[in-house]
Amino acid sequence: MRPLQRRLMRTASENCLTENSILFREVLGEVIRSLRTERKETLHDMAEKTGVSLGYLSEVERGKKEASSEVMESISMALGLRLSDTLRLVATALDLNETDRREVLKSGMLRK
Predict the structure, then answer these.
(1) Which pLDDT band holds residue 3 (cuts at 50, 70, 90)?
(2) Domains of the chain (ranges plus CATH)?
(3) CA atoms within 13 A on the CB side of 7
């Protein structure tokens, strides 16, 4: 990659993420945690159902780790959803401002 291309890519990525930017992985984690707790399941329950380590699931829920499509599929199935349903819920949550999103996730209204 040429120096100019690298500089342009770096500038573009810096411009895309601001302090107030919400990352997909953070909202995915919020949605997963909301759905899991709504079902009164523990992280341990999810780890057993998905075959994903408890530590990794915890990091996904906290938005610290990116989940692969395979992991997202496994989590979705454990929650009784298709992956496309989970992604729709995340997309809906991404459209909300942070305050509204947290309120909706806390109330369980996202699935209704």
Answers:
(1) low
(2) 32-111 (1.10.260.40)
(3) 3
